Amino acid sequence: MQAEISFIGLFLEASVLVKLVMLTLLCLSIASWAVIIQRRKLLNSARAKSVKFEDTFWSGVDLNKLYKELSARNEGVSGLEALFVAGFKEYSRLSQANSKSPEAVMDGTTRAMRVSLSREVERLETHLPLLATIGSTSPYIGLFGTVWGIMNSFIALGAVENATLTMVAPGIAEALIATAMGLFAAIPAVIGYNRFSTQVEKIEMAHVNFMEEFSNILQRQAYSEKEAV
């Protein structure tokens, strides 16, 4: 392929505005892939930690011992661990103050776990709106560069008497590259957003199910403590 119709050659010969459009799309594509890689690692890690914690939780371990181990960690807990710590901590505090009212204890415990769940979902969804924005706007940014480049090509074509396809082809080609770059930035962003949103929903549902099961365990314990009193 000759240099004058290569990608770099067309970029260098493009107008300033089309160059800005291409550079913008390149930056959006890089940002998109950075978010995709980072979110993929985070969600895979969150899913693995959830499975590991559930195995530990349902193995019959003493809940007081598990709570002390998680609370003593230097690094912060996350996922189901954070949900468990928030619920058990609030349950222990309210049990001492409202030992004769299991309903009040469970209401406070459930609220604490819901707050922890909301924070966890917010953490998992970080940067996903950026993918949605890139996926929805990149094609239009590229189309804008294409329209501008073709318009300039036809304006230049109208200024000469003997117009040929060879004269207008480079301008149209550089304009179409902007559309191609817009699609190149948008397609991975849309796929990543849809995939990660589905994964977040699954993780959230798993957390909700654990919260309900854990609440049932604490509720039985609260009523047994009331009967013992």
UniProtKB/TrEMBL annotation:
Keywords for this protein: Cell cycle, Cell division, Cell inner membrane, Cell membrane, Membrane, Transmembrane, Transmembrane helix
Transmembrane segments: 16-37, 140-160, 172-193
Record's subcellular location: Cell inner membrane; Cell membrane
Domain MotA/TolQ/ExbB proton channel, residue spans: 83-205
Protein topology in the membrane: Multi-pass membrane protein
Main location: membrane
InterPro entries: ExbB/TolQ_transport, MotA_ExbB_proton_chnl, Tol-Pal_TolQ
NCBIfam families: tolQ
Oligomeric and partner information: The Tol-Pal system is composed of five core proteins: the inner membrane proteins TolA, TolQ and TolR, the periplasmic protein TolB and the outer membrane protein Pal. They form a network linking the inner and outer membranes and the peptidoglycan layer.
Biological role: Part of the Tol-Pal system, which plays a role in outer membrane invagination during cell division and is important for maintaining outer membrane integrity.
Family: Belongs to the ExbB/TolQ family.
Protein name according to UniProt: Tol-Pal system protein TolQ
Species for this entry: Shewanella electrodiphila
